[in-house]
Amino acid sequence: MSSTVKASAPAAEPREQGPNFIEAIIEEDNRTGVYGGQVVTRFPPEPNGYLHIGHAKSICLNFGLGLKYGGRTHMRFDDTNPLTEEPEFVESILGDVRWLGFDWGTHLHYASDYFEQLYRFAEELIKLGRAYVCSLTAEQISEYRGDFFKPGRDSPFRQRSVDENLALFRDMRAGIFQDGQHTLRLKIDMSAGNPNLRDPPIYRIRRARHHRTGDAWCIYPLYDYTHCISDAIEGITHSICTLEFEAHRALYDWVLAELKNIPPGASVAPPRGSPKQIEFGRLNLTYTVMSKRKLLRLVNEGHVEGWDDPRMLTIAGLRRRGFTPASVRNFAALIGVTKNDAPIDMSVLENAVREDLNASAPRALAVLRPLKVVLENWPAGDVDHVDLVNHPLKPELGTRKVPFGRELYIDAEDFEEQPPKGFFRLAPGKEVRLRGAYFITCTAVKKDAGGKVVELTCTVDRDSRGGEAKDGRKVKGTIHWVSAAHAVDVRARLYDRLFSVENPDDTFLEQLNPHSLDVVVAKAEPSLAQAAPGTHVQLERVGYFFADPKDSKPGAPVWNRVVGLKDSWSKEKKKG
Ligand code: ATP
Ligand code: MG
């Protein structure tokens, strides 16, 4: 495995270096004028699932290039396999691309819109002697194809006449044959070194209802044939795809070159464009799986709640978790594009959202694991309202009054009965600062029958209001708190990485992180119970949270932890 790109790489700011290798190609094309200075890209998903963070990389890349070079980017559904495609996926994909902030204008296209043209091109290729109907079974075709080391063998049907091929192909369309009985294949070269050029099938018979064309067709074109032609029809200039298509480029170019030979007066004119295919390294992320097949198993076998489970690296999951569109775009800009597939460390993505939310999310106090504190020298019923800043980087957001009284909650983790060296929070006889409020010192510890600490008694220094002692004495620790009398109970879902290993493999279902979700009832500042769904907050010293847009009810938000304040995983790794 090649090295992983770590979070310690440059901060999440868009590159300021020179053009990447794709931009360099585009700039050279603009200089020489091959495309008349035009840049037209496309994002071409198959509507057979939800988009994930890898697709987001491709979306940002394609739409980003359209914007950067004053061109445009088409949204195109590569919908040639009716068995797996559904309108639900079309809708979710469009919503996700829009959410990322991109706009295809009037250019929403479907490969299925080109079915009639694709069919006519196929007839023309037959007439040019470049395609034939083959009656081998699928197994035979793959057997005849050979492999990387073994040349293929000609199909016994390769020499059918143009007339016979045309008649058979028309009968295929007319529904005379059974599924799988024949295919239409390109006539290229069965001994080609590149197996993709060994007479690839381009049409198959498949009686299935298509999400857009219904029952109009019983033959469907295959991906390689459809994709290059769709690009050329739409006038795409730069057709950007992932590296596994590198060996398909020769076929892409072959089909488009042959279509140029369609004579004037034919039933269809050659497509106008001459797109160029460019490959880049797909995104792989540590601590996750990206293949649709694996994501589908997580959903179908109930390991997650659904495609939009906040632990899923689908765009729907990231949205619900509370990632922002800007954080995903910044992530894509930061990782850039290269010709290799080295995995990116999950912390790079987490840092991107942390940086974005640090700048925007208002601050609030809540305690996830409440431990009661009683201030023995603070009169019962006496309430102070201390001023806390709403955002340290944005004074214009002002301050808010937070109630403070005799009984408080602090986080159980901020107290140690026997503090280890370097523990600067609360301990018997020790003093800490309560964020923005007062200094307190622990004087007694109350335990239950099992020896568990259930309550602390403390004294408060009333002269330290605002968090500064009058006599100038310092404390090292500052902890967060809420007033017990005013606190509200709020549900918080503490999400963490879905997998506990860096590179989940085929046993990924056994590599799930058992602690990827912990649900707690937190004690919070009253405002946190009122927040509208879809609101962000930074719980001071805890992390960034997002009021779940689906499960929150008016006045009763469910808070999802987007990400903690620090990268706890890199610490874990160092420890382990
Ligand atoms: P499959 O083809 O198995 O259904 P896919 O992930 O390739 O899955 P598509 O819908 O074909 O799904 O992908 C749409 C676009 O997104 C393609 O251009 C593809 O290259 C790109 N893409 C998919 N996965 C990644 C990834 N991990 N990193 C970058 N781009 C990706
Ligand atoms: Mg694909």
Key structural traits:
alpha/beta, Rossmann fold, Ribosomal Protein L25, Chain P, 14 helices, 25 strands, binds adenosine-5'-triphosphate
**Could you report the average pLDDT, rounded to the nearest whole number?**
94
Biggest sheet statistics: 7 strands, mixed
Low-confidence stretches: 6-13
- The total strand number stands at 25
Q: How would you characterize this protein structure?
A:
The protein is of the alpha/beta class and 576 residues long. It has three domains: 6-13 and 20-282, 3-Layer(aba) Sandwich (Rossmann fold), CATH 3.40.50.620; 292-360 and 490-575, Ribosomal Protein L25, Chain P (Beta Barrel), CATH 2.40.240.10; 364-486, Ribosomal Protein L25, Chain P. Helix content is 26%, strand content 22%. It is built from 14 helices and 25 strands. It has helices at 21-32, 53-68, 87-99, 115-127, 138-144, 162-174, 223-234, 249-259, 292-300, 315-321, 325-335, 346-360, 527-530, 568-575; strands at residues 40-43, 72-77, 108-110, 131-134, 183-186, 201-205, 219-221, 238-242, 276-280, 363-364, 366-367, 370-375, 384-389, 399-404, 407-411, 431-434, 439-447, 453-461, 478-479, 481-483, 488-495, 517-524, 536-539, 543-547, 558-564. A seven-stranded mixed β-sheet has the order 10-23-24-25-21-22-11. The longest helix is centred in the N-terminal third of the chain and has 16 residues, at 53-68. It is elongated and about 100 Å long. The chain starts with 20 loop residues before the first helix and ends with a helix. Mean pLDDT is 94; it is low at 6-13. Bound molecules: adenosine-5'-triphosphate (ATP) and magnesium ion.
